[in-house]
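quick one before i forget lol
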Amino acid sequence: MPSSVIRNFRYYEAEQRLFVEFTTGRRYSYLGVPAKTAADFRSAFSKGEFFNAHIRDHFNFVRER
């Protein structure tokens, strides 16, 4: 199901970094994200709900340009 909040995301397993681009155009990298969390995010029915419950406020992040 397409998300109304998240436009795109990509997981870099070697770095444990989850890149997320929001529909607003803002882009962030979340650091130290375990592969299991990224896989669960990928398979979640609602990406926005999963993101809010399991990623936002749980991992450090940097804003990308």
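fyi Residues 35-43 form the longest helix (9 residues).
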